[in-house]
Design goal:
The complex is a heterotrimer of chains A (256), B (366) and C (316).
Chain A lengths: L4 E10 L2 E11 L4 E5 L6 H8 L7 E6 L2 E2 L5 H7 L1 E4 L11 H8 L8 H6 L2 H21 L14 H14 L4 E5 L7 H16 L3 E5 L3 H7 L2 E6 L2 E6 L1 H5 L2 H8 L6
Parallel strand pairs in A: 3-8, 3-9, 6-7, 7-8
Antiparallel strand pairs in A: 1-2, 1-4, 4-5, 9-10
Chain B lengths: L2 H6 L3 H25 L1 H26 L8 H14 L3 H5 L1 H6 L8 H23 L4 H21 L20 E2 L2 E2 L4 E3 L2 E3 L1 H24 L2 H11 L1 H6 L4 H27 L9 H14 L4 H30 L6 H19 L8 H4 L2
Helix pairs in contact in B: 2-3, 2-9, 3-9, 3-12, 3-13, 3-14, 4-7, 4-8, 4-12, 7-12, 10-12, 13-14, 13-15, 14-15
Chain C lengths: L1 H31 L6 H22 L5 H28 L8 H22 L4 E2 L9 E2 L11 E2 L1 H23 L1 H11 L1 H6 L4 H27 L1 E2 L5 H14 L4 H25 L9 H15 L14
Antiparallel strand pairs in C: 1-4, 2-3
The chains are: A alpha/beta (256), B mainly alpha (366), C mainly alpha (316).
Chain lengths: 256, 366, 316
């Protein structure tokens, strides 16, 4: 079975610093995959390279068996990788529903002519867009907030909105950059339930996270980065007891 | 209440508002004519032209969030095109052409206006293609530079070939003829003597309504949402798969085309064009209208236009006499006061009401 | 060949002026990441205030030598514009530090309009004669012959270049060697951390604006001295061109602004001169401004980081 996401040999330098060295990552369809590591390990850099925000110095990328060149962000999204942002980037002046409708943009076609003339097909597509957007809002649990302005939502709800918006693009891979950042314990539990639900419905997820407990409880496989290199890869319990991983997190020379 | 719902099911309030607006539009010239004669109706005509321009700029600035300070260049392109195609200028410069067209060069307005729109859109894409990836402030300066370049060329393309007639401009531009009716002459309609400024008013009003209609339709569509997304957060928009480059180019081209149409109408209305009508001050004036009215909000933009376009005339009437009464003479040119208002408007709106004087309800509902 | 020398000289004078103005843009951009649209008009106000000061001094102290009058007037204008620039920051920009990018730009536009309006009110729309207090007698730099006129300059031009160089050198010293300069650089890098170190970011920002304003006033007076007139719109084009120069050299980079300014002046002078020659005057000095705009577009499209600047974004 070919992997959903296959990335090999990614390297990236910033000036004199090797942000990433020969990083490999393979995700199977239907998995929840975690990417962890201490601060500065290169997780976000890798994420940004993978989604086209940065250009890698070296690396091969393939999604669902098809190679892709992460040269432009929107093309990566069109190919099927949808991402969320660590610091939640919504379209603040738009309503909650409209935010998700933007997520549908990449799977719809109405252009200028359709906008001006509103012929039959255009109206049908617009109604479908609205309906599907509402569906995703209901799916993540904020359906009744559809008409609120996006920036009036609570932090937890904003995070859900971002996820709903990403899901609306019908991605092959949903990539989340520190989705639990800034959340309290209760919110994290709700997030975990949501992510499990998404996984159980057959989606593939990639997660960067600092919250090790969340990652261990949720992910099927984990890659650990440190100083731009992969130091461990495997199932949670293997990674957790890997001495290199422990050392990376706690620092050298500490035992016990 | 979001705008999209308002558009799909107009509420009672919206319907009444529309009817009132239509009534106001219909009666405005007659009211203005009573108050200040033909001069005030002429002012309304210019206000309508500004409305067309401002709605065009609104697409660029208000919807897509691109600060274009050289917008007036598209107006100039449309105006000069109209002037060149319907005045004796080219014929006097190129005898071969004069020989080929013994009846003169009188292109119909039905050809000029769409052509002006297309050409302006073309210029818009030409300017936009290399520059739209620049960040907001750089884009502003580059577009400003482009506007100035156009003006310099208009002012100097009288050598080696006299195309634009330099600083003297092109005059004797044909007025608009619609269905055989010459809008520059007073016409008898149903027993009423309708002066030319009134005729132009209704023509411009119809076109302005068409442009308004197009804007409303665009705003509440997949494309409109995409523009708004780009304005709000371009990176996030890209991450959702939006080809922001192409969308920005589209906004630019459409906005430019409205400017071109306005320019063509302006040339025919005024009867002559000169480079000095298309300076940075004009770009800023249109921007002020968009900003004041509420970026992206159509009724607000129209209000901004009316306020800022009517201002010089009102000032001329009032300030002139007030100063006369106070000081016995007019100390301060109303033009200067107008510029003062523009400057203050821009600063104060940015500081205290960045969503505009009459923002969209979605903006106000915080 | 003489065209070359002549235009080289012209270009140096122009370039020095552009460099002085560009410094103001680049410093403000380095600290606040905004383009101060009103900067060119501060130059204009400086020139006009200088004009007033000169008139005042000459009527109050008729026996004062010209050079002294010019120096005193310049200092007055520089002080006034430093104050003006500080006020502009406080009123038009401070509140908008966290607003979307377009807001300070539009606000700056408004300030620009206001300044022009004030100038129109006080000094009318007509160009005002600016007393040229430094000698204007032509100094031959190269000797001419039958077919070519000699390349000439004059004391005013020479002093312009010299003063500009001195001032720029002084600014570099200030920024790189003094504690104040360190504070400025710290705030440009990271205002929050700077404030933790006991630096008051607002004070530094106001000071940055003030220095820029003073430099603009200096440039304005020198410009007016070279060309003999000052009017309400004189700041617009130099402002845009100086911004181009700042971008050419690398925005945020002081040496870049100086380099960019001089380069742009040279490009403009040489380009216009040669184009005029080549086309027999058809495309000559009337297209002078187009050069600057073309350079601007070219730089921003091809190498937005400028000659000495760093990459602004880590984009693919």
């Amino acid at each position: 079975m070919s992997a959903l996401l296959q990335i090999e040999g990614v390297s990236k330098r910033f000036g004199g610093v090797n942000a990433l060295s020969e990083v490999n990552l393979t995700i199977q369809a239907g998995q929840v995959y975690g990417l962890i590591g201490p601060n500065g390990a290169g997780k976000t850099t890798f994420f940004n390279v993978m989604t086209g925000l940065y250009r890698a110095d070296a690396g091969r990328f393939a999604l669902a068996g098809t190679p892709y060149e992460p040269s432009s962000v929107h093309k990566v999204a069109q190919a099927g990788i949808a991402r969320t942002f660590q610091n939640i980037r919504l379209f603040n002046a738009m309503t909650v529903l409209e935010n998700v409708m933007v997520g549908r943009h990449v799977r719809t076609r109405n252009g200028v002519w359709a906008a001006l003339v509103r012929h039959r097909r255009a109206r049908v597509e617009e109604a479908e867009t609205r309906r599907i957007a509402q569906h995703w809002l209901d799916y993540v649990g904020i359906g009744e907030l559809a008409e609120r302005r996006a920036d009036t939502l609570s932090y937890g709800h904003q995070r859900r909105l971002e996820i709903a918006r990403a899901l609306a693009t019908e991605p092959k891979l949903l990539a989340l950059d520190e989705p639990a950042a800034g959340m309290n314990a209760a919110e994290k539990l709700q997030l975990r339930d949501l992510l499990e639900k998404i996984r159980n419905d057959g989606r593939t997820l990639l997660l960067i996270e600092h919250d090790v407990k969340l990652v261990m409880g949720l992910c099927d496989r984990i890659t650990v980065l440190d100083h731009g290199q992969v130091i461990a890869e495997g199932a949670p319990h293997d990674v957790r007891s890997n001495p290199a991983v422990i050392e990376a997190y706690l620092g050298g020379g500490v035992h016990g | 209440m979001s705008l999209s719902i308002a558009m799909t099911q107009p509420t009672q309030r919206a319907r009444i508002g529309l009817v009132l607006f239509a009534l106001a539009l219909l009666l405005a010239p007659w009211i203005a004519g009573q108050a200040g004669g033909n001069a005030w109706v002429r002012m309304l005509d210019f206000a309508l032209l500004y409305i067309m321009l401002a709605l065009g700029l609104n697409i660029v600035v208000g919807y897509a969030g691109l600060l274009d300070l050289g917008f007036i260049a598209f107006y100039a392109v449309g105006a000069y095109l109209a002037a060149l195609l319907s005045s004796p200028h080219l014929l006097t410069q190129f005898p071969a052409l004069a020989a080929a067209l013994p009846h003169g060069l009188h292109t119909s307005i039905w050809i000029i206006v769409p052509l002006a729109g297309l050409m302006a859109a073309g210029f818009g894409m030409l300017l936009g293609a290399p520059t739209l990836r620049l960040r907001g402030d750089y884009l502003a300066i580059v577009t400003l530079g482009f506007g100035e370049i156009i003006r310099i060329f208009m002012r100097n393309l009288d050598r080696p070939l006299n195309i634009t007639n330099g600083p003297k401009g092109i005059s004797s531009v044909d007025p608009i003829q619609l269905f055989g009716v010459n809008l520059a002459r007073t016409q008898d309609i149903l027993g009423f003597r309708v002066p030319s400024v009134y005729l132009y008013y209704y023509l411009f009003a119809v076109l302005a309504l068409l442009i308004m209609f197009a804007c409303v339709r665009l705003q509440d569509s997949r494309i409109g949402r995409a523009w708004l997304a780009i304005r709000e957060d371009e990176d996030a928009a890209q991450a959702m798969g939006l080809n922001t480059r192409r969308l920005k180019l589209l906004a630019f081209a459409i906005g430019a085309s409205f400017g071109g149409v306005g320019g063509a109408l302006f040339a025919s209305f005024q009867g002559f064009v000169s480079p000095e009508s298309f300076s940075l001050n004009e770009s800023v004036a249109v921007l002020a209208m968009v900003v004041l009215g509420g970026m992206g909000h159509i009724p607000g933009v129209i209000l901004g236009c009316v306020l800022l376009a009517a201002l010089p005339e009102v000032l001329r009437a009032t300030m002139g006499s007030v100063q006369q009464w106070l000081f016995g003479q007019v100390l301060v040119d109303p033009e200067i006061i107008r510029q003062l208002f523009y400057g203050l408007a821009l600063i104060l709106v940015m500081l205290y009401r960045p969503a505009g004087v009459w923002p969209a309800s979605r903006e106000a509902a915080r | 060949m003489d065209i070359f020398i002549q235009q080289l000289l012209n270009g140096l004078v122009l370039g020095s002026l552009y460099a002085l103005i560009a410094l103001g843009y680049t410093m403000v951009y380095g600290i606040l990441r905004i383009i101060n649209f009103a900067h060119g008009d501060v130059l204009m106000i400086g020139a006009l205030i200088g004009l007033c000061a000169i008139h005042l001094l000459q009527s109050a102290f008729p026996s004062l030598p010209n050079v002294v009058v010019l120096i005193v007037a310049t200092l007055i204008a520089m002080a006034a514009c430093a104050l003006l620039a500080g006020i502009i920051e406080r009123v038009a920009y401070r509140r908008l530090r966290n607003a979307p990018r377009l807001a300070p730009l539009i606000s700056g536009l408004g300030v620009s309009l206001l300044l022009q309006t004030v100038a129109m009110l006080v000094w009318t729309r007509n160009p005002q004669l600016f007393p040229q207090l430094l000698p204007l007698d032509p100094i031959e730099v190269t000797s001419g012959d039958i077919t070519h006129a000699p390349a000439i300059t004059n004391m005013t031009a020479i002093i312009t270049v010299v003063i500009a160089m001195l001032v720029m050198g002084g600014l570099l010293l200030l920024v790189e060697r003094t504690r104040l300069g360190r504070s400025m650089r710290a705030v440009a890098e990271n205002p929050q951390v700077a404030s933790l170190m006991g630096i008051n970011p607002n004070a530094v920002i106001v000071l940055t604006f003030a220095i820029g304003g003073a430099l603009a006033a200096l440039a304005g007076i020198m410009m007016a001295s070279n060309y003999g007139s000052a009017h309400f719109y004189m700041g617009f084009l130099p402002g845009i061109k100086a911004f181009t120069a700042a971008v050419l050299g690398g925005i945020g980079n002081l040496k870049g602004a100086m380099l960019g300014g001089v380069l742009l002046g040279l490009i403009e002078a040489l380009g216009t001169g040669y184009m005029g020659e080549l086309t027999d005057g058809v495309f000559g000095s009337n297209y002078q401004d187009v050069f600057a705009f073309m350079v601007l577009i070219a730089v921003l499209v091809l190498r937005p980081s400028g000659l000495l600047g760093e990459r602004l974004a880590v984009r693919a």
